[in-house]
Amino acid sequence: MNTRRQLLKSSLILTAAGLFRQNVFAAGTDSSKSAQLEPPPDLFDSQALDIDFWVKPRTLDLVRPQSGERSKLLYWKDGDLIDSAYQELCHLLRDVNGKKTMAMDPKLLETLWATQAYVARFGMNRPLEILSGYRTPESNRRLIEQGVPAARKSLHMDGRAADIRIAQLHEEVLGGLISSFRQGGVGFYYRATANGGWIHTDTGLQRSWKG
Ligand SMILES: [Zn+2]
Which residues form the signal peptide (predicted)? Predict the structure, then answer.
């Protein structure tokens, strides 16, 4: 346990150092100010965001590795969803295997957007990878049968959950950021693969777990 924590801690520091360089690079300004930044999770506490962040137009840049699709869309402006863009995002978040689309919870889109917009402030402009969005009950059942972590009453089946990843951003940092929005459930799935693990985010009750 100690070793794992140690490992996690050192990757966090590495991640923070990585962000740090990008931040200094992107901002190209006052490095002494950047040097005062604490490592995550303090660095990623979204509660410090001001109202300007939440009222400006929202663009989402999503990629679906499973199908190779990518969409970068302005989907929300002046307090309203832009219907055509919303439909397109729902299509991207569909059940790729079951070939079914669901009206996704706009609150979930807000979490995805806020996450992306927040890390963009640190010079991270990679698209957000959607590993799973809507799931038909059949697809969800198949995952359980295959031993993939999936809840029997998964919010994926209601269009209220997504499994996501941002390249080169540690799951701990990504999940910590999403938790700080206090908008629903967050599952941390650590995996020692080349691409790392993923974060489950949903619009259900506020809770978090490791899977
Ligand atoms: Zn999930």
Answer: 1-26
